[in-house]
Each structure stands twice: as structure tokens, then as C-alpha cells.
Amino acid sequence: MAYRANILISSAAPGAPEVEQALLDRIEELQLAREVQVIQAATLGPQPQGVELVIYPEGTHYVRLTPEDARLIVDEHLYKGRPVPRLMYKGLEVEPLEAPASKEVRVVLRNVGKIDPGNIDDYIALDGYAALAKVLTEMTPEQVLEELKRSGLRGRGGAGFPTHLKWTFARNAPGDVKYVICNGDEGDPGAFMNRRVLEGDPHAVIEGMAIAAYVIGARQGYFYVRAEYPIAVSTLRVALDQAREYGLLGDHILGTDFSFDLEVRMGAGAFVCGEETALMQSIEGLRGMPRTRPPFPATSGLWGKPTNINNVETYANVPQIILKGGEWFASMGTEKSKGTKTFAIAGKVKRTGLIEVPLGVTIREIVYDVGGGILNDKKFKAVQTGGPMGGCIPEKYLDLPVDYDNLAKVGSIMGSGGFVVMDEDTCMVDIARFFMEFTQDESCGKCVPCRVGTRRMLEILNNICAGKGKPGDIERLITLGEEIRVGSLCGLGQGAPNPVLSTIEYFRDEYEAHIYEKRCPAKVCKALIEYKIEAATCIGCTRCARNCPVNAIAGKARQVHVIDPEVCIRCGICKQVCPVDAVKIE
Amino acid sequence: MKSLEELQKIKERALERRRMSAEGMRARVVVAMGTCGIAAGARDTMTAILNELERQQITDVAVTQTGCIGLCEFEPIVQVQLREGEMVTYGKLTADRVPTLIARHVVGGEPIDDWTVKQKA
Hints:
The complex is a heterodimer of chains A (586) and B (121). Helices cover 38% and strands 14% of the residues of chain A. With 586 residues, chain A is α/β, with parallel strands linked by helices. In chain A, a hairpin with a 3-residue loop joins strand 3 (53-56) and strand 4 (60-62). In chain B, strand 3 and strand 4 (87-90) form a beta hairpin. Chains A and B meet through strand 5, helix 3, helix 4, helix 7 and strand 11 of A and helix 1, helix 2, strand 2 and strand 5 of B.
């Protein structure tokens, strides 16, 4: 028997069985089974595009089909004889891959993405280990320190302490046994600058550490890398083996009296271990908790010995400074913050990613020129710099040149270079609550103000977001925040109140709206919003009611639907699935 | 390594090898294999490239890896350089696109414009 139509389905595509079932069911329902035939053809067309159908004799090609689309095609195309252009194949799909013209200046990342990190020869070909050779054969430790001083390099881990001073202290500290440590415990959510360096150019960091060891007189060094970076760790281990094989680590490096070797230690997931004294405790095999400073690591660090500890990015800068000179490095950046910095741009921007720019570029340049502007062309609201202990910087500071001192002035920090962009749909109270949740969770518990105080702050913020805010909450948050700041030993506690205090300073009206008007201006806090269906817009398609996980939506086909606010859990699915955007938040 | 001269020799040898490999080879294919690339499927892409070259018995193509080149959103990223040509950067080069890439660019010598990452001024 001849069929009126033959339908080929791309049965190998993911989701094909469901579409095929819907197709067959609908064909059955409309009693078309004797007229049309469905044939499984593994793949169709020049490039796979979801579940596809080709209907013969016309040869109409439908792509990216859902079971619902399949039912529609049966209704329209096969039953009524009206093809559905919306679902048809429209030629090879080409996604434009447009990257911004690069504003980058690469010092730390100069080799990343250019060399094979698994091959030391690639690094040596691009002047790798030439700086170490120069230091060992031509320079005294004092000359190295002088060059670093001229460069103006400051610690890239966040605090921005001048590197040459740190090294001088460790050099001058009495003792035969000294250590160098590289802090690769990059724990800030959304930050991956150090990972990229360790994965892409591990030898640059090794070389920088060897130079530091020469200057302070250390023979042994440690890489402390977080366990969440398995690829970085394995790349690093390969690099260390290759450096040892070439005699660039070990005894009598390059025939000199300088001997130095490195070991990798992995963190175990505690955020506080990125703090230098907690990190050293962790290497010693103790529980990672900060201790009082002074004494500083430079005089009493790992196992009580003088220790120099720097961030991955700081060490990676050193070889270039030695080769090209301190003046060259100091020619980039601002008066007090020299050189370049890597930033991880995340959040509501069009292009997220990692960049290296000279210090002193403005926030606007980073957000709009590098990040491509705000996602969906919404309005910029704030940017949070420096990880979970950073402050939120509002729009009025968009033209602020980014450096250590300017960020501190507006209540934030450079940190390791996190850059989280927020748009008008972000609730600043909710975001402060989110970061407080993180720091409260990661507080090691040693200092009472940090352990208990962050908990109390989180409770107040949770209440405010749940619509249970009380008059006086804002003041209580400020008092608590200031006390935690002065009563904590390490950067975690000292910085934990930053997101809250800065959002209170710049977005106090949002806190007040939550507390006094029980209203969330950004329409984020679930307890303070209500989903409603606009009667004039609703077409009664029933899609929202069918997708509602708690059956909170009532209404018949082609009639206006209504959400029951008592049942609604504010999950937002109805808003996502509504084809005519009739669901509004109030 | 016991002296500066030795380091210098290794450097010259490494530079020479970079040049040599470009001379003796039809093309160089570099896959970005940072965490971002691997998360987007760079390992599958790499395997597909090696399999496709082997299937076609092409031996004069050097396949290497590198770290993150800074365009994480376009991963997996693959760069192809023909003997004297410019380095061409492809974005979202998933394993299913590899046979076409090898056939058209590496063998055919014509870059696939639609798949390249364009830097906009």
C-alpha cells in the first residue's frame, strides 16, 4: 500500500525517541496511520541539528524539534496540509564567533596559549630560564632586589605589599634554613587567573621562585595548589620533572653554588588556607588556621623558619622584570600600582573571561570594552572586585582607574583579581547575603567575632530577604561588621563584612525597601515578590499550568490563567515558558 | 645542565626545532587544553584530530597542545597553521567538526571562514 507521506526521523539524535513517540501518538489520534509512514533514519542533513524530520514527497526539512513541535507538525502539515515555516531548516547555521579587539598587555600571560606547557624546550626557546641564568651568573641578591624595587612590583595575592620589601625581610632574617612558598590556593569563586598561569606556563612560576630562593638564601620551596586544580597540578609536576632533568632544579644549578628544589602540596578545599599563615600550617600537616602576625612569615614562617610567600602571579612577573628591567615594568600602571594585572570577569557581561591589562584602566573599560557591556543590554548596577571579601562598587565609580589604592578608597579590594559584574536585575541585599553565606561557611572559627559575627550577620540578612527585616537591622549590620573587621586575625574575617558594608553604603535604599516596605526592588527575593498573569496578554495556551511544579495555576484552554499566590513557590518556570510574556513579577 | 652555554645551546636547539618542524611539516595543529578547553570538550576534539589524521594516514602534521588562550567562551579552540601561513584560530571546534576541518583546511589548504574567531576592532 502506498503512503500519502513518508516521514524520516533522525533517530540517532538525543531526544529522538520522545519526539518519535509524540509523532506516532498524534498520527494515531488523528487516524492518519494508514496514510503516513514514519521511517527511522539515523541522521539527516549536512550537520546534526537536534531531532530532525524530513517529510516526503515534498522533502520539507524540520529541525530542532520537541515532542510538542512534532504534534504540531502532524496537526498542521499532515492533517491540514499547512507546512510550518517556523520549524524548517534554514540553511547551514553559522554562529558568529566575534571576539573584541584585544586591549590586553601580556606580561604574566605572555607565553600562555603560545607554548606547550608540557615541553620545557618551548619555554626555553622563548627566553625561558634566561632570567635565572642572568641572576645566578651576573647579579648579586642586592642587585635583584634593586631591580625589583625599581619595578614597583606589589604582591598580586591581594594585599599589594611591595615584593622587594618582603624579599628583603626574608633575606635579612637570621637563619640557615629558609623557604619559599608559592600560594596557588586560588579559592575566590569565579577566579581562575592562577590556574591559567599554572596550566599554561608553569616554568615561569618555577623560575620566579628559584630567583626568590637565590635572593633570600633558600634551598627548598613549596607549591601550594588547591586540589580543585588537578590539571594545574599534573602540568606542574611534569614541569618540575623536566626542570630537574635539565638541572634547572636540584644541586649546583647551572654549575653555580646555588641549589634549590620544589615540592607540590595540595590543599584540601578550605578557603582559609589561601591565607598565608593558615597555608603554612596546612603544609606542616596541621589544621589550616591563621595565627597572629607578627611574627611575620619573613622571620618566622614555615616550621618557624624565615619564609617568603608570594602568589602565583607575583612570581610569574619576576623573570620578565629581570630580563627587561625594572623601568620597563614601572612604565606600565599607575603611580603606586605598577605593571599589569590579570582579572577574571564574570557575571552579567556579554563576554566573560580572563584578561591581563595594565593597572589604571577604568572599570568602564573593563566592563564595556573588554567585557562587551552588560548582558541583554541591561543597565550596569555594580561590580564586585577581589572575591567574596570585596566590596560592591556602584555606577558612579565607573570611571575609577583600577589600582590597589583606588579600590581600597571606595571600600573594596584588589584581591586576586575577581571582577563580578551585576546588572539592574541583581538584588544587592541578596548578593550581600550570598557572599556572607560563603564567608560564614568558610570561617575557620578561630576568632570569635568572625565565627559568631558572620553567623549573626547572615541571620539578619536572611531575615531581611525573607521579609522579616526589622527597624535597626541596618545599624546592627554596620556595628557587627565593624567589630568583625577589627576583631579578626586574618583577611577572611577582616574582609567578610565588606560586601555588606559597601552595599549598605551605596544601596541603602534597597535595604530600606526590604525592611520597611517589604519590597524587593530588583524582584529577586522570593518572599517579597508575587507572580501574576496579565489578563490582557494571556492567550490561554495552558503552557504555564502544565509546567507548574506545584499546580498553582488554574485556567482552561483559551481562557485567562490565574496563579494562586498561596500555592506558588515562586520558581519562575511559568515566566520562562510563557510564549507571550504575560507572566509579570510584582 | 651545568653551564650557561648549555642553556644557550638548548635554546638554539629548541628554536631550531620549532623552525624545523615547521619546514618538514605540512601543518601545525594546536589544541587549547586548559581546564576551560577540556571542560568544553577539547579532549574529544584532540582525540578526533589524531584519529582523523591516522585514518587518512597523514603523518606530516604536528599536533600539540597549549594552555588557555583567553577566549574561554569559544572553547574548544583549535589553531591551524599551514607551512608558511598565518595561524588561524577556530572557536567551538567540537569533535564532530574535525573531519571537515582536516579535509578543508589541512588537506585542502583553505581555512573555513565561518568557524574562525574574528577579532573585532
